[in-house]
Write a structure and sequence with these properties.
41 residues; mainly alpha
Length: 41
């Protein structure tokens, strides 16, 4: 029982942080591309 509860809690935490992490990575990716293009001009 405890293991199942802990696993579900970890899954929800991973989902929350996973989505935030993906958003941050997307923003960083766009920023990197913009900076790269700006330096090329």
């Amino acid at each position: 029982m405890l293991r199942g509860i802990c696993a579900s809690d970890e899954d929800t935490l991973m989902n929350k942080y996973g989505r935030k992490l993906m958003d941050v990575l997307l923003v960083l990716g766009y920023a990197t591309i913009l900076v790269y293009l700006a330096t090329q001009i």
